[in-house]
Design goal:
The complex is a heterodimer of chains A (about 250) and B (about 230). Chain A is built from 9 helices and no strands. By secondary structure, chain A is an all-alpha fold. Chain A folds into 2 domains: about 5-190, no CATH class; about 210-250, no CATH class. In chain B, about 80% of the residues lie in helices and about 0% in strands. Classes of the chains: A mainly alpha (about 250), B mainly alpha (about 230).
């Protein structure tokens, strides 16, 4: 494959992708973010203003995915646009495949990203942060930020690179064995950290001993059990808010 | 005045990190409240409130399309308001913790509605983007993203300022203090731990993950014994 898009344009696209969500709206969801991310690359591919306008219009249609994995789609779209030009397709060619690819990759990567980042890496980073916090608040902050941001930035950067290399095949690569294995391991580690937090927190020097300490452990387990038994789909914090406001009303 | 400005600025940073740029967990209560504590010269108290809210919100996972509370700006605002009170001579951490919870929780949910409202209004932005491209000004797409970041910053600043003012007001209520003094800080932490863990346990219901969780429990107990 010849590289019509310059390296600097790919880097500019990666930097713009960090603000992917800034234009999130209920009309086209992440369409502004996607079009702005692709802009440096499309400028290389379509130097004529009219062509650029038509190319951008196609990317201003609906798009939605997990923001951390959006670079995979963006990279693949850059490669697809290059490939289209290579084959002499140009802007006149039928591009319904483009919309279909955006829709398919958006939902596959959205699902994958939600499971990896929101239900795996974020809980892992928060729990590890809480454990390190017991040693020193500074360690807690550093562990939380580093544990989340090093993989997150590497994945975003790799997404742009792999997308540009593999084109539309990138979704198959990520959503296959690689993605499943990453999700499995990050969730295992999060479960491990979740198990380690209660004993470490409850034997912290600031926790009382004796009957008071035992009552505290029992109370923690009781509260945890109540939250676990809550109606599915409701945030635990909503339960706390309701309880707090009700008890305040009663007291008042 | 400087203290209020610092809390407002941190609220803006938290909102940008939550919904607009980078999204690198700077908005997590543990991080942003500790930063507020450091900025206001009361790092220990800031870290305590951050830890308290982190434990509570650990179980709220942003998966799906439900209305999500906007945690960062509300947390830093509520903690900031109490920290300003602590600097002014109000010293009880237990009372402070309860006030932080009472303020941060409802304001986070209100701010969640604000996020949705802002996204709804941004439909105009999508139309402006199409118009800019059609008019031959594609470069404006980037400025629209910058505008989005600034909108988020404004929303976060307003949320944090509102939360700080509400927390400061609650600290002044005479009937709340004797009631809150009944609750020791460690009991608050344990309660929030229970809520956070209970929320998270929902994620790990499979037999395999429960085995890993059990392994973590054993490791945690062993580490606790070793550390004394």
């Amino acid at each position: 494959m010849s590289w019509r898009v310059r390296m600097s344009s790919r880097f500019a696209a990666f930097l713009t992708s960090l603000g992917f969500q800034a234009g999130f709206n209920y009309d086209g969801f992440q369409n502004i973010g996607l079009a702005a991310t692709l802009l440096p690359a499309l400028r290389d591919l379509y130097p004529e203003p009219d062509d650029l306008e038509r190319a951008l219009e196609r990317h201003l249609r609906y798009f939605n995915t997990n923001p951390y994995l959006a670079t995979f789609t963006a990279g693949a779209l850059i490669a697809a646009e290059e490939e289209n030009l290579e084959r002499g397709g140009g802007l006149e060619a039928d591009t319904t495949w483009l919309d279909r690819f955006k829709q398919a990759s958006g939902s596959v990567l959205g699902n994958l990203g939600d499971r990896f980042f929101w239900a795996g890496l974020q809980p892992l980073a928060c729990l590890a942060g809480v454990i390190a916090f017991l040693l020193s608040p500074l360690y807690g902050i550093l562990v939380l930020l580093l544990l989340f941001n090093i993989p997150h930035l590497l994945i975003r950067a790799e997404g742009m690179r792999l997308g540009c290399v593999a084109g539309r095949g990138v979704v198959t690569i990520v959503a296959g064995d690689l993605g499943a294995r990453a999700i499995r391991w990050v969730r295992r580690l999060a479960a491990l950290a979740l198990g380690a937090v209660p004993p470490l927190l409850l034997v912290h020097p600031s926790t009382p001993d004796g009957v008071e300490g035992a009552a505290l452990i029992a109370g923690t387990i009781g509260v945890g059990w109540l939250v676990l038994r809550r109606e599915r789909g409701r945030f635990p914090s909503l339960l706390v808010l309701t309880l707090l406001l009700t008890s305040l009303l009663v007291v008042f | 005045m400087t203290e209020w400005l610092a809390v407002t600025a941190l609220g803006a940073v938290a909102a940008i990190d939550t919904t607009a740029f980078f999204q690198g967990m700077v908005h997590q209560p543990l991080v942003i409240c500790s930063l507020a504590g450091a900025a206001l010269g009361v790092p220990y108290e800031g870290a305590f409130f951050g830890g308290l809210l982190q434990l509570l919100w650990m179980g709220d996972l942003p998966v799906g399309s439900r209305l999500r509370p906007e945690v960062g700006p509300a947390a830093v605002g509520a903690a900031g308001g109490v920290l300003i009170g602590i600097k002014a001579g109000f010293l009880d951490l237990g009372v402070g913790g309860l006030v932080v919870l009472l303020t941060a929780l409802p304001i986070a949910y209100l701010a969640g509605y604000l996020v949705n409202w802002q996204r709804d209004r941004r439909s105009r932005m999508a139309r402006r983007a199409r118009a800019a491209v059609a008019a031959g000004h594609p470069g404006r797409l980037r400025w629209l993203l910058v505008e989005g970041v600034l909108q988020c910053a404004g929303r976060g600043a307003v949320t944090a300022l509102g939360a700080a003012a509400a927390a400061r007001f609650l600290l002044e209520l005479s009937w709340l203090e004797p009631l809150a003094r009944q609750i020791p800080p460690y009991a608050l932490l344990a309660g929030m731990l229970g809520i956070g863990l209970g929320g998270m346990l929902g994620l790990f219901r499979s037999r395999e993950l429960l085995a890993w969780l059990g392994g973590g429990l054993v490791l945690g107990i062993a580490a606790a014994v070793v550390l004394g």
